[in-house]
Structure formats: C-alpha cells, structure tokens
Known about the structure:
Keywords: Signal. It is a single chain. With 455 residues, this protein is an alpha/beta fold. Helices cover 40% and strands 16% of the residues. Strands 7-6-8-9-10-13-14 form a seven-stranded mixed sheet, with helices on both faces. Strands 2-1-3-4-5 form a five-stranded parallel sheet, sandwiched between helices. The chain has a two-stranded parallel sheet with strand order 11-12. The chain is globular, with a radius of gyration of 22 Å.
Amino acid sequence: MSENYRTTRRVYLKGATAAGVAGLTGLSTSAGAAQGGAIQMGSILPITGNLSAYGSGMQKAVNVAVQDVNDAGGPLDRQINMTNTDSQTQPSRAIQQYNSLVNEQNIIGFVGAASSGVSVPLAQNVAADQVMQMSNASTSPALSEIGYNEDRSLKYFGRTAPNDAQQGIVMGRIMNDDQYIGADRAAFLFVDNPYGQGLAEKARAQFQGETVGMVGYSQRASDYTSTLDTLFQNDPDAIGFIGYPGNGRTILNQWSNGGYGGEWVLSEGLNSSDFLSSLSNITSGMYLASPNPEQTPGQTAFEEKMGEQSGTLFAPHAYDGLFLQALAIQAAGEASGTAIAGNIRSVSRPEEGASQQTATTAADGGGGGGGQQANVVTVGEFQKAKDLLSNGEDINYQGASSPVNLNESLEPLNQFAILQVQDDGSTESLETIPRSFFRGRLDGGGGSTTTTTQG
C-alpha cells in the first residue's frame, strides 16, 4: 500500500537514515540529556465511542508507565510530558487529535490508536512526520506493511498487540475441530472496518468447510435484523463474529430473539467481562479466540499498580507501548521519533542468536545463561534498564502484556487460548496454543486479499 509522504514537520531530523540511527545508539546519556526540557509524548485512545469500555483502563496504563519512567528520572534524565487525547473510536477525530499533538505539542511518539480502523489512517502519516506510533490494540494484518519511510529503512508504526493472522488461525481451528464446533458451513459477521474485514478474511482462509456468507455491518446502525437475515440465509452451522461490545449487544439480543441458531466464535474485541456477563443467558457456550501470552516477571506489579482496572483488555499492551518507547530513547541517547523507530526492537528482545528457551527461562526467574538473565528488565524497572544501558549492556524487556519480542515488522508473536463462555459470563480456558505453533504459519502481513480490504 502506498503512503502519502508529506514534508516532515520534523525538519531538524530531515535526512536521517538507518545508518544515522545506528550512530545514535552510540551517543552518551549525558549528550542526550544536554538537549534539556521535557520529552513530549501522547496517547490517542477510545475514552468515548464503541471501545469506551476499554479506553479509560488503557489510558491509565499509559499514565502508570509514564509515572514509572519519570520516577526513575526519565529517559536521558528528562521527564516525559504526556498529553492524553480521546479518539472517540472515530478515524476523523483521531486524525484531528494526532495533528494537534504533532503541530502544537511537538510529540515524538504516542500510544494508540486502539481499533485498526483508527490506526490505519494515522499510520499512513507517521513516517513522513518522523513520529513513532505504538498501538496497543490494533491487530489488522495490513499494519505490518504500513508506517515505513520511503526507502523502507525504518518503520514508524509498531504494536504490542498481536497480528490478527494469529487470531484467524485460532478462529478457524475452533470451527474446524470436532472437539469444539466441527462445522461444515460457516458464515462471518464483521464490523465494516479494517479490523473486521481483515480478521474475517484470515478466519475464512483457515476454515476448511464451505463459507456461505461474508457479511459486514455498520457501527452506525441500530437495528441488525436484515443483517442477520442475510447472515443466515444459507444456514451456516457456525458464525465467526468480529466486532465490539457496543453493537455486539444489539446484534446478539436480536439473534437470540430471532431464533436463528448456529454456534458462535467471538473475536477478542468482544472479550469484555461486562459484555459477556450482561448477556450471559445468550453468550453461555460461545467460544472466544484470545491472546494468552506467557507470564512475565512484571505482570503482578502491573496488576497492583492498575488496581480494579487491571483486567482491562489491552491495558497491559498500552503500558508496554509507552515503556518500550522510553527504553528506545534511552538506548539511542536521543529523544526523537527516528531514534525510537531505530532502537525499539533492540530493547524488546533477547540478543540475536540467544535461544528462546534461555529468554523464557530468564523471564520465569529460573536458571539459564547468567548474562541473558541479568539483562531482563520488566515493569517498573526503568532505573535498572538505564544502569544496564549506561554500562553498554543489551536489555530484553519482558512486559506487562507478554515477552513483547518484536519482529522485523515491530509486532510480537503471542501465545493464544481457546476460551468458552460459562453460564455466569465468565470464561474457561479449554486449550493453550503456544507461540511455536504459529511460526511459519503467518504470511508476513497479509496477501493481496487482505491488502485490498484494508485499502
């Protein structure tokens, strides 16, 4: 997908190259600190709109990360100044907020947006502006290919949420496997945006039976009877539902009242405890495909810091999105979007060549290579990271959400779980699918079909 490269607002960074960013890594902390002043960063999250059930928890997580970083003196001994904004879960509003953050606040990086439909238009601009975007909840496969500069030497869009190519594999498995649904015919109902379209295509590609419907729906509608009639006109055994709680409540109530039948597989966007419990008489027995990353050393600390909002979907990912950017600034010795883009992968993963087993053992607090174990940093350990980096050591951030080992597309590979909704609206894990299962099964960001649906 082509990008609209505009004249950068970051004129003092114009002409930066991959080689230039590599050079930034060697700058001393004192040289970076000499720049002085607060480091301007932001968030664009859904405080209102269809994802408002998650927005306040996500924003709190970002602010907790800022506090943890600033309590350690901040990157390069400079404080982060955070400006939080509301996307309203609308692309047009998010673009307005982004432009304000860039033009008025002079941010170098931000966390957000949540939905892929909001993140895609933002990500098309960040490379030209040399602003780093880290999304905590946008999962569209198309985002693997958006955010690069013109020569593709740097990617200014990254995410701590997994690529939906993984989730599509899991949704297809639930529909295919006789242990779960074992469907012969399936239809897919999806919110008509890049998240819904992209994931529906991925799940359809994984389903081994006959696909008898691909039905998009508008978030602006209030009645979905005709949508459901279309969805069930060819009598599917299973329904893959990709959506959000706001419209999902209306859709499932109308499905139940209409007596349509079929077994449902819900996307992670519907994995809200309030949503599932408020509809427990309807959702009981339904399946969910959900990221279920391995435990890391800092997850308990994160939950304690978040209190009653610790269970907010993708809030841990929001914490990691800010913390990783701060680590990248420290590693680079330079506070700029280009420095973040060039260094964020290096602080997120084991040293190249280190075995995944060694990294996992270190994260679990067990034995293993002494050097690798010493270089693991986690939630709230920004001072430890600063000390290691100042001594020329590499670090491996193990996050609040997962080990967040970012790949070349600046996105993690996650462990997943197959969940089933219980009578009270809670969920029970039926199967854990390890990261190793997905290696070699992803297509690196989506084929031509997915790219078309995201355009």
